[in-house]
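Each letter names a residue; C-alpha cells follow underneath. Both lines appear below:
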Amino acid sequence: MPLSLQDLGKALLDTEYAVRGPIVARAVELEKSGREITYCNIGNPQALEQKPLSWVRSVLALCEYPELAEKAPGAFHADAIAASKAILAGTKHGLGAYSESKGVRCIREAVAAFIQERDGIQADPDAIFLTDGASKGVQAALRMLIACPSDGIMVPIPQYPLYSATITLYEGKQVNYYLDEHNDWKLSRQMLEESLAEAKRFGVRVKGIVVINPGNPTGSVIDADNIAMIIDFAKEHGLTILADE
C-alpha cells in the first residue's frame, strides 16, 4: 500500500536534521531560480574547490585496480603502492567483498598499532569497530545506549544536529549542557553537574555524554585540563563518553 505521513512513527516525524532541513531546501529552490548559493551547512570542502588528499585517493585507486601501478609507471608514490599491496593482502579477495561487521582485520590492526604508538595504550584490534563515516559510528553508539524513552544523552549546546536528530529518532532524551562562549567555549564541572541533576529530577537515566572536540560548530579546542575534568565527571557518574574528535 502507499505510505502517507499518518503511517509513519511519531519518532520519525519528530526528527529534525537541521543540516538537511528547510533552510537548505529553500537554498536549493533559490539556486534553481538562478541565485548563486554557497552551502556552509555541511563539511564539504571539495565542493568549494579544495583539492582532495591525493595519497588516500591513490591508495584507493590501486586497491580497486592494482594493475594501474604497472600501466602508469611513476604515477604513484612507492608508499601508496606499498599500502595498497598490504591492504589487498589483508583482504585476500580484494575490495568489494563483504568483510567482518567490525571491519577488515588488517585495517583494525593498523588502527590499534597507531593508538599504541600515539598514546602508549595497548589497543586490541578485536575491540575496534570501523564504520563508514563518523555519523554511522555515532548512530551505532546511541543505538546501544538508548534502550528506553527514559534513557538520556548529554549533548553540548551549540551542537552538531546529528545528535539531536538521532536521539529523537531512537526515542531517547537529549540532556543539554551549555558551552561558555565567553570562556573560549569551555565547559565547567558545575555546569555538567547541574545539567545531570536537572535531568535526574525529571526521571531521566543519563547514560552517556557527547564531547565534540574541536567544537562543531564553534571550532574551539578543549584543553587538556578540561578533557581530564570531563573524564573524571563521566567516571564518577558511570557515563559512556562519545568522543567526537
About this structure: The first strand starts at residue 151 and ends at 157. The chain has ten helices and four strands.
